[in-house]
Amino acid sequence: MDGKRIEGNEVYALAMCVSILLFAPIVVSQPIPADKSQVEAWFNGIIKPVKERGTTLDPELVQAETEPRIIKVMQGGGGEFDTITKAIESVPSGNAKRVIISVGPGSYKEKIRIERNKPFITLLGDPKNMPNLTFDGTAKQYGTVDSATLITESNYFVGANLNIVNSAPRPDGKMVGAQAVALRVSGDRSAFYNCKIIGFQDTLCDDRGNHFFKDCHIRGTVDFIFGSGTSLYLVFIFPMREI
């Protein structure tokens, strides 16, 4: 599938996510407006295509974006793989090119981990029919940070148009090890666009590194964002779930 053109919604989602990875220097010179109604215009004004920002970006990133590879994941056939895990396993260690894993609609009950030696991976869903990444891991089984449905440890990860869910039961205050993380982000320079991240206790482990979240929705009850990451949450929704 190398060299296949990316079209339609894929172009928009990919361009948005990849281009925002290293815009921190621009933010310093153009602060985020205090008026919420002006934020979208501010964002669109400072974000430029990778080709126009080549001298301000990590050369390794610029090179990685030149010839992206696309892998299709579809349940029931029609793609190279039927699970996200198999697609990730096909990416070689030390990968140096953007690999876009296009995830078809449906519910993927998988515990997904992208290891540190596989940078430049994108998980891309369809914004009109977002795939569900779901698992029911808990701290009792795996430890808190390793209970996550999706764990990203590599640099330059991008997630777009995904529902990321930990489906473990609601804690009742009596269960030991009931923490259940939906997403753990441990790599540097990662970005998430138009994702729903849903759990109860400890939903998002913003573990470490610099991260950007745009137009995302996170839901939980207790401590549902935690960690030592340095992140910007832009146009974000944080609804509390009833305990």
UniProtKB/TrEMBL annotation:
Q: Name one Pfam family in it.
A: Pectinesterase
Top-rank taxon of the source lineage equals: Eukaryota
Parts of the chain that traverse the membrane: 12-28
Its family remark reads:
Belongs to the pectinesterase family.
Tell me the ranges covered by the Pectinesterase catalytic domain, including all copies. Answer: 72-232
Catalytic center residues: 223
Known pathway: Glycan metabolism; pectin degradation; 2-dehydro-3-deoxy-D-gluconate from pectin: step 1/5
Q: What is its EC number?
A: 3.1.1.11
Q: Which InterPro entries match?
A: Pectin_lyas_fold, Pectin_lyase_fold/virulence, Pectinesterase_Asp_AS, Pectinesterase_cat
What's in the keyword line of the UniProt record?
A: Aspartyl esterase, Hydrolase, Membrane, Transmembrane, Transmembrane helix
- The answer, when asked if Transmembrane is one of the entry's keywords, is yes
Q: Name one GO biological process term.
A: cell wall modification
Name of the protein this chain belongs to: Pectinesterase
UniProt keyword Protease present: no
